[in-house]
Amino acid sequence: MVERDQLARYCAELLSISAQRDYCPNGLQVAGKQVITKIVTGVTACQDLIDAAMAAGADALLVHHGYFWKGEDPCIVGQKYRRIAALMKAGIGLYAYHLPLDVHPELGNNAQLAQRLGLDYGVAIGPADNLELVRQTQLPDTVSIGDLARQVGDTLRRQPLLIEGHDRPVASVAWCSGGAQDYIELAAAAGADVYISGEVSERTFHAAKELGIHYLAAGHHATERYGIQALGRHLAKQFGLDHEFIEIENPV
Fold first, then answer.
1. Three-state SS for 69?
2. CB count, 10 Å around CB of 137?
3. 109-220, which class in CATH?
4. What is the DSSP string of 17-60?
5. Do 2-97+226-245 and 109-220 agree at the fold level?
6. pTM of the entire structure?
7. Quick one: fold of 2-97+226-245?
8. Over the stretch 181-229, which tens digit does the pLDDT of each residue have?
9. What are the tens digits of pLDDT across the range 58-95?
10. To the nearest whole percent, how much of the chain has pLDDT over 90?
11. Contact present, 216 and 148 (Cβ < 8 Å)
12. Average model confidence (pLDDT) for the chain?
């Protein structure tokens, strides 16, 4: 078991949350029970996940996508009220870790995605204010983009959207989980043959074609389901907690 604020302090240090300039608060977002024995992890703190966490007997819910995003209406009404009210009524604390979980070198979404795809963690090529957001690595042997796309689909259980940008074999891969399609220019400038992320925009098609780089849109949810599981397993081992990951299917 672990005390509520002790868990928050531990995660803050483990994930170096003070080092990130994020679009939301990282850490304890909704206070719950003082003592935690069971945690549920999930990607997004939607109503379905909250309901499932309640049914599972969770004391705390840990997610990648929490609440209170920059620019959103701060009023606790409507959907936001129903979600937060459900958590408070059940006494379930909500912990959310966004960019700090993306970039953690062991537990992070980028690291966990690389591990599952059999990629070396490579080097950081992200934007100047957060280099760790985008990674790049060289493959030991070249592959065709078709074979790589099939591997990604088989691994993530979701067929990615492939935008072909050239006809060369793939020797260098860059990636960033989630909604990071606009880092395709950084990937191309770094010499990557393919860039893998979660989402895709209309403009991404033209960027891939004109920059001469393949793009694989593998799903925002699909590319970010592994970091929070790794964090949950780590915390369970560290504090002797019961841990359960609950998958709420999302095709995006």
1. coil
2. 17
3. alpha beta
4. GGG---SS--EEEE---SEESEEEEEEE--HHHHHHHHHTT-SE
5. yes
6. 0.96
7. 3.40.1390
8. 999 999 999 999 999 999 999 999 999 999 999 999 999 999 999 999 9
9. 999 999 999 999 999 999 999 999 999 999 999 999 99
10. 100
11. yes
12. 98
Reduced to 3 states, what is the DSSP secondary structure of residue 163?
Answer: strand
CB 86 within 8 A of CB 51: yes
Q: Residues 159-193, buried b or exposed e (16+ Cβ, 10 A)?
A: ebebbebeeeebebbbbbbbebbebbebbbebebb
Domain extents for the chain? 2-97+226-245, 109-220
Quick one: angle between helices 145-156 and 109-117, nearest 10?
Answer: 110
Once rounded to an integer, what is the mean pLDDT over residues 119-144? 97
Token duo for residue 242: 């019961």
What is the per-residue pLDDT for 118? Answer: 97
Identify the three-state secondary structure at position 142.
strand
Provide the pLDDT confidence category of residue 26 given band limits of 50, 70 and 90. very high
Could you give the residue ranges of the DSSP H alpha helices within 141-226?
145-156, 184-189, 202-211, 220-223
Tokens of 165: 């940008």
The count of residues in the chain is 252
Closest by Cα among 64, 186, 165, 197 to 123: 186
Direct distance between the N- and C-terminal alpha carbons of the chain, in angstroms, rounded to an integer: 35
Tell which residue, 78, 94, 77, has the closest CA to residue 36.
94
